[in-house]
Amino acid sequence: MTTRPRVIVSVPVPEDLRAELAGRFDIVDVPVGERPAEVLSAQVRADIQGQLITPRTRVDDDLMQSLPRLRVSSNFAVGYDNVDLPAANRRKVLICNTPNVLNNAVADVTLGLMLCLARNLVAGDAFVRSGAWTRGPFPLTHDIRGKTFGLLGMGRIGRVVARGAQAFDMKVIYHNRRLDEETEALGLASYVDRDTLFRDADVLCVLVPLTAETRHSVGAREFAMMKPTAYLINTARGAVLDEAALIEALRSGKIAGAGLDVMETEPLPADSPLCSLPNVVLQAHVGSATHETRRAMMELAVHNLIDALSGIRPTAMVNPELWG
Ligand code: GLV
């Protein structure tokens, strides 16, 4: 056994932060996507007390069983659908994540996708580059001002998105499992029932976390309720949508378009039907992918791990009931 805690690192960490980790722990590098049981000896695994990972590492019961002394798993992401939370709770593994620091960046991509869809900005760029402009003007697009912005899921990111939509003079409505007190107090959006949200929104944004309940929860039934002029935006997790039903809705004109930063399969293969639909704008899961935001996320993820293993309450815990 080593004297210092051993931790797995499965994400590239900037030098200064890696030095902070190395000052306290023995670091064991496990390449992203590989399983400790496949690449580490049982002796090394027996010493591992913490890990720093991305959502590409599945923290399931098998993984936790293969790391019998694991106490903390620090996710370099706010979403933690890669974690079997009941199993983590059973095994008393504290799960940390990176909320708040990415709210603005994700909100920016959400609103950017809305502008791309309503004003057809991506096609407009191709139109100019190809010289098509010399043969005539670009087709007219649509205003967003005065339209209704709907949010499925209202939380930390949703509140920033709602403020942005308000700045575009949009009416903002939302549906959540329960009323969001902060949204209500700030007058950011009006609460509506779920079906009203889908029926009334001109722009419908999905911002719920991926859970067993939300998987494929937006599908054919919801698309049938939406306006044929409405746009759907997903900056949460791909599998919240029923992608096959979405493709059908986009092909048949049940909805006007979709802006997707996340998909069921990532990276999205070029032969996905989504890639050939003209009414879709795609991004490569880049909601939080700015230098500044990723740095802030990494600082938080590293310090969550250091704190938790040093007996200091970490800033962001998914299952804080395990602390102490
Ligand atoms: C990004 O998708 C995250 O969950 O942080």
Topology overview:
Elements: E1 6-9, H1 15-24, E2 26-29, H2 36-39, H3 42-47, E3 48-53, H4 61-66, E4 72-75, H5 85-90, E5 94-96, H6 103-119, H7 121-129, E6 148-152, H8 156-167, E7 171-175, H9 181-186, E8 190-191, H10 194-200, E9 203-206, H11 220-225, E10 231-234, H12 243-252, E11 257-260, E12 280-282, H13 291-309
Parallel strand pairs: 1-2, 1-3, 3-4, 4-5, 6-7, 6-9, 7-8, 9-10, 10-11, 11-12
Bound molecules: glyoxylic acid.
Glyoxylic acid (GLV) binds next to loops.
In words, what does this structure look like?
This protein has helices at residues 15-24, 36-39, 42-47, 61-66, 85-90, 103-119, 121-129, 156-167, 181-186, 194-200, 220-225, 243-252, 291-309, and strands at 6-9, 26-29, 48-53, 72-75, 94-96, 148-152, 171-175, 190-191, 203-206, 231-234, 257-260, 280-282. It is of the alpha/beta class and 324 residues long. The protein folds into two domains: 6-101 and 292-322, NAD(P)-binding Rossmann-like Domain (Rossmann fold), CATH 3.40.50; 103-282, Rossmann fold, CATH 3.40.50.720. The strands form two sheets. It has a seven-stranded parallel sheet, with helices on both faces. Strands 2-1-3-4-5 form a five-stranded parallel sheet. Strand 4, helix 5 (85-90) and strand 5 form a beta-alpha-beta unit. Helix 1 packs parallel to helix 13 (291-309). The chain is elongated, with a radius of gyration of 22 Å. The structure holds glyoxylic acid (GLV). Glyoxylic acid binds next to loops.
